[in-house]
Design a protein that fits this description.
The complex is a heterodimer of chains A (191) and B (505). With 191 residues, chain A is mainly α. Chain A folds into two domains: 86 residues, no CATH class; 98 residues, no CATH class. Chain A contains seven helices and two strands; from the N terminus they run βααβααααα. A two-stranded antiparallel sheet of chain A has the order 1-2. In chain A, helix 1 runs antiparallel to helix 2, helix 3 runs antiparallel to helix 4 and helix 4 packs antiparallel against helix 5. By secondary structure, chain B is mainly alpha-helical. Chain B is built from 23 helices and two strands. In chain B, a hairpin with a 6-residue loop joins strand 1 and strand 2. Chain B starts with a helix and ends with a helix. The chains are: A mainly alpha (191), B mainly alpha (505). At the A-B interface, helix 1, helix 2, helix 3, helix 4 and helix 5 of A face helix 9, strand 2, helix 19, helix 20 and helix 21 of B.
Chain lengths: 191, 505
Amino acid sequence: MIDTPAPNGPAIGRQFNFNTVAAVIFIVLAVVLFFIIPDQIDEPLIKIGNQNKLSPELFPRMVAAGFFLLGIWLFFKSFSVRQHNELRDLDREAITNVVVTLAIMAGYVFLMVNVGFVIGSAVMIMVMSTYFGNRNYGLGAAVSIIVPTIVFVLFTKVLVTSLPPFPLDDVLSSDSFLYGPLNYLSNHSIF
Amino acid sequence: MFESFLGGFGILFNPETVLMTFLLLAAGLFLGMFVGALPGFTTLMAMAILLPISFFLHPLLGIPFLIGVYKGGIYGGSIPAILVSMPGTGAAVATTFDGPALTKKGQARKALEVALFSSVAGDFTSDVVTIAMIGPIAAVALLMGPPELAAILFLALIVISATSSGVFVKGLLMLALGLFFGMVGQDPIGALSRFSFGMPEIESGIPLLPMLIGVFALPEIFVGIERKASQIIQSSGLKVTGERLTWPEFRGCIRTICRSTVIGTSIGVIPGVGQVVAAFMGYAAAKSASKHPERFGQGELEGVAAAESANNAVNGPTLVPLLTLGIPGDNLTVILVGAFIAHGLRPGPQLMQEQGDLVFAILLAMVFANILFIFIGYVCIPMFAKVVTIRKSLLLPLTLIFAFAGSWVFRSQPFDLAVLVFFGAFGYMAKKLHFDVTPMAMGFILGPTLEYSFGQTVILSAGNMPHYIFVERPFTAGILVLTPILTFLMWRRSVRLRRQFGTTD
């Protein structure tokens, strides 16, 4: 997308547009920032370099001033810039897909934290791939189980980091034949 | 610096780690080519989601791994560009001018091989040039103090905003937003808490990893799911057919490869221009220098060689401003900055002084990676050709699990997943409204260093900043005077190039 100044005359760019709105948002943000700076920055116990006007508020104030001045610049510039708001191009299918994906992400966060990474990911992959057109359920199920397990092992065993484990002790007795292998896959058995 | 260069050999070929380093380089190249070959999946996204893996490896293993993804991704984009006229990455758009025409003539194998050899030739040469350039520039950079560093960072941030895609003032606003996000947590001089809004999760700042993955990887996923098409291309059209490239044919392209490599290397050093412009410029230069320009666009091997050697020649030199001055030249090197910082290595002149051996080891790994590059590329061409057919409906959720896992592992906090989704949604909106997130990421990463250097300058000036800058620090004054001039020149150049070649990257 190349930004070109609008030609003279009653062009699209002579009206209020999304860039004008964005400019107003940035100006408002600047004003809000100026007001909250005193409350949001701790007072120093020792004022280092105070004689040189070095205050912890100096840089934030400069950034707030930047927002304000640039916001004003964009406000006036917005009338002469021809850009298309691509959010308006999104049709019903695209909006539905994005909203559904955001909902799936929210559900994924909940599942990942509560039932662990592998199970949460498996459910997410199955739901999302089915929604987006996969009808080969066998393949979907295999990918849903195998890939999260590999990722889990990669991060927890090879890279020795932590991912949410399956709450094994809450749902399975330690006598169960599944307990051993699943316990290995949980974070408790990092070697 | 020469001692550091020799020390780099010692570190790279340490018998205990050398095998692992090259294995991870190979893995990075493979993954990069894999993702690059997928239309709609960018190198940037691959680097963003694989970044967390590099965090938990030794820098000598993790950073070459990411560099492998970078190199492989830029080349991988040429495979679908040649076979089905669908560039896997923006850098491969110029390859579609001649690549598909060669495929139609039954010379797909020749086209893919010339793309591979040209990519490796461009990449290798530019890597060697990078190593040669980095020492002297770093030596000069070491003479700089806080005022000079602050002025250079200021210049770099303004130039990056000016050369980002879109309107200049929008780039500057995104930069200001990044600086604001970078201020959340603690101030870098007095370590005072600020802008945490009573949330303990951001007392130490907005987490880098979820932020980077959010703004660079999730928007690509959101764009990918706008349509439900589960499979774009049928595998029947993806046969790597025809004869192999012959030595006389390759020899005929050498002059073009050399020219494109010079173009790509020169462009790589300039922040904010990138592979796409390099590929177009390389192609245009080859066409105008050819005795048969009319053959370009009709299936000319030189056309593929010109574009591919130019775009890969950008890879190495983008590290010059990054490693010597701490300035990432584009969004791909922003990801590399994230990797360096996560390892406690802040790119800049001090890094070259304190960890010069390690930096040279990483750069040497880049050079040697080209051997693996040519081997993996050659062996795997038929396989990567089939990658295009993988179902998008399965790939997108798999990408998502890497993004979420990568965001979790850094601090193990559910809050970080919320940060990921927030920045993902923000990045998607920004993309749709023509706000480039690269200046924002740069501001976020470089903001604290800029603030620290600026604070030191204020203290050093002892209350008389104009006198201090213009009388005692003439180099700083020079940079400040040059900033508007350079910004204007680079902005004008960037706009002209984008208009000429019709690109946004």
